[in-house]
């Protein structure tokens, strides 16, 4: 923005005190004109622009301009990063803790105007928020009135979207339409599943405790026996059982009952009963037809609300899983250990949103590098939770104890975590000495790490040194001390690699993986990793496997 000449400021004391005019504005336009009038009096011949915050935090919308305001026009979206305006010419527009926008001046104001301007902008912000809230309130009121007008012409039940309110309204409508003195409404916990529990949802004029004493003549659960039946009207003087109830349990005041199953298109939602209706059998047939339509509508609405609730829960679960997936990915190593002796590459791919595989690389203060590959039984949420606890335990202990002792500690921890669930973890942990290329490996029932020996061009398997973690609290574990040479490669992997199947159900297998490692050994760790994953996808014919897939490659430079 280019500043024009700013005239000497006029006395603004009266302007600063007379702020009621801002709050008296009834439209955004009136409010902007009131602010503009005040700013023009205080800063004549000065360019100004008021930019309000928009949905994009990096952009603001130009709400009003005074003077030329540079290239900006009202309504423009402007990038805040390109505001070439000094801080002393910026005045932030606040409402409580919220930043509403900023006023940009083409020239710095005089000291005695700064306080008046700040006060005015505060009142402008309050007035702007109030106008916005009033506008939204009017819009909501208009929408609500329009909805009521439309619903008055339709079905009264569809005035509500809360299941409990719908059921209360349905109960009230049924008793009112049949001129009954009491009623009860039972609904299925899972609408559409007639074998799910049937619970008492609403009562009117009859104690819950009394309803709980009712039984069928054969001792059966009486509401469920009426769930799958048809609507009926029973009078005590004609049928002492009132449709199959044990007469000895019925109070004398109960003279008749109407049973109204809530069902539409074969979908059961519950059953509504009204007691002591003001009607005779001769007139009840037509009334039952009308009530049947009401109950069909009620069942349809309850079914729809049930589906919406299920959909909302599923969306919430999907969102939580997406968050869990992000967190789990961040638990993986973010960068390779800083050592010139080795080249590292790793990848972990979950079969579902989150998985039970885990790999890690950790550099100790001594310079030793600790590596881990682990696989929890199964995959999904349970495995991911178990592995999260396992990761914390491994990272806390790995730098301080020998690998076989580390597995013993982890085994006791896992055994405590899994309890009687039958879950377990297989794991292989390594300690690498960059200076000497010595390494120590301990394997708890995991797939044998592969060791490519550059000197011979062969691949060796490093066998397990104990059972999976979690089976026996006091299980023992061994380890091996080995020495790497230049060009050697260690490949750690989970069974999701070797047990991946093609369309003919042939497994990828250990031998195929060993041949692939040997044929790729001249590449970098990343190149080897990419080739293995590409071959795995080509073999199975799909990008995502049935089980979690994790690979960690350590190559001696």
- Which strands sit side by side, in order, in the main sheet? 3-2-1-5-4
Biggest pleated-sheet summary: 5 strands, antiparallel
- Coarse structural class: alpha+beta
How many helices? The count is: 13
- What is the number of beta strands? 20
Q: Tell me the name of the CATH class of the largest domain.
A: Alpha Beta
Overall number of domains: 3
Q: Fraction of residues in helices?
A: 25-40%
CATH architecture identity of the largest domain? 4-Layer Sandwich
CA(first)-CA(last) distance:
58 Å
CATH topology (level 3) name of the largest domain: Phosphatase 2c, domain 1
Radius of gyration: 37 Å
Low-confidence stretches: 1-10, 146-154
Percent of residues in beta strands: 15-25%
Per CATH, the superfamily of the largest domain is PPM-type phosphatase domain
Shape: flat
Please give a structural write-up:
Helices cover 37% and strands 24% of the residues. The chain contains 13 helices and 20 strands. It is α+β, with helices and mostly antiparallel strands. Strand 16 and strand 17 form a beta hairpin. 33% of the residues are buried. The protein has 3 domains: 124 residues, Beta-Lactamase, CATH 3.30.450; 151 residues, Beta-Lactamase, CATH 3.30.450; 225 residues, 4-Layer Sandwich (Phosphatase 2c, domain 1). The N terminus is likely disordered.
């Amino acid at each position: 923005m280019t500043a024009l000449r700013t005239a000497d400021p006029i006395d603004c004391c009266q302007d600063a005190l007379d702020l009621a005019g801002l709050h008296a504005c009834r439209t955004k336009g009136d409010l902007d004109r009131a602010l503009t009038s005040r700013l023009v009096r205080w800063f004549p011949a000065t360019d100004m622009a008021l930019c309000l915050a928009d949905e994009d935090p990096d952009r603001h919308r130009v709400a009003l301009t005074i003077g030329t305001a540079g290239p900006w026009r009202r309504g423009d979206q402007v990038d805040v990063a390109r505001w070439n305006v000094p801080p002393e010419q910026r005045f932030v527009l606040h409402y409580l803790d919220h930043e509403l926008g900023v006023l940009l001046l083409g020239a710095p104001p005089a000291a005695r105007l700064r306080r008046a301007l700040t006060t005015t902008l505060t009142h402008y912000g309050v007035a702007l928020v109030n106008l916005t809230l009033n506008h939204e309130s009017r819009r909501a009121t208009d929408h609500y009135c329009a909805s009521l007008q439309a619903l008055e012409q339709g079905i009264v039940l569809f005035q509500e979207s809360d299941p409990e309110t719908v059921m209360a309204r349905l109960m009230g409508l049924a008793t009112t339409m049949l001129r009954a003195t009491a009623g009860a409404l039972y609904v299925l916990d899972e609408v559409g599943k007639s074998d799910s529990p049937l619970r008492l949802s609403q009562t009117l004029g009859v104690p819950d405790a009394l309803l709980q004493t009712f039984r069928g003549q054969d001792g059966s659960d009486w509401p469920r026996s009426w769930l799958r039946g048809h609507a009926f009207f029973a009078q005590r003087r004609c049928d002492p059982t009132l449709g199959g109830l044990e007469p000895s349990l019925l109070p004398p005041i109960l003279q008749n009952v109407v049973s109204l199953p809530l069902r539409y298109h074969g979908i059961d939602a519950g059953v509504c009963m009204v007691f002591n209706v003001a009607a005779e059998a001769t007139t009840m047939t037509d009334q039952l037809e009308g009530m049947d339509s009401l109950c069909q509508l009620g069942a349809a609405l309850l079914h729809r609300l049930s589906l919406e609730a299920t959909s909302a829960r599923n969306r919430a679960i999907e969102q939580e899983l997406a968050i869990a997936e992000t967190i789990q990915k961040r638990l993986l190593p973010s960068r390779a250990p800083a050592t010139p002796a080795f080249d590292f590459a790793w990848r972990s791919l979950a079969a579902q949103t989150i998985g039970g595989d885990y790999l890690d690389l950790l550099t100790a203060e001594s310079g030793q590098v600790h590596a881990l590959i682990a696989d929890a039984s199964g995959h999904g949420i349970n495995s991911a939770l178990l592995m999260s606890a396992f990761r914390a335990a491994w990272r806390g202990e790995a730098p301080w104890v020998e690998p076989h002792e580390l597995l013993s500690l982890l085994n006791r921890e896992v055994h405590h975590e899994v309890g009687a669930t039958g879950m377990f973890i297989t794991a292989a942990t390594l300690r690498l000495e960059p200076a000497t290329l010595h390494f120590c490996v301990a394997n708890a029932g995991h797939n044998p790490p592969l060791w490519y020996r550059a000197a011979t061009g062969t691949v060796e398997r490093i066998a397990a040194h104990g059972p999976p973690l979690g089976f026996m609290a006091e299980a023992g574990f061994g380890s091996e001390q080995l020495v790497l040479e230049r060009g050697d490669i260690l490949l750690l992997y989970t069974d999701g690699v070797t047990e991946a199947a093609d369309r003919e159900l042939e497994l990828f297998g250990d031998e195929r993986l060993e041949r692939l490692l040997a044929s790729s050994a001249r590449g970098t760790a990343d190149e080897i990793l990419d080739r293995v994953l590409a071959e795995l996808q080509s073999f199975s014919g799909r990008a995502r496997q049935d089980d979690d897939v994790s690979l960690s490659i350590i190559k001696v430079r």
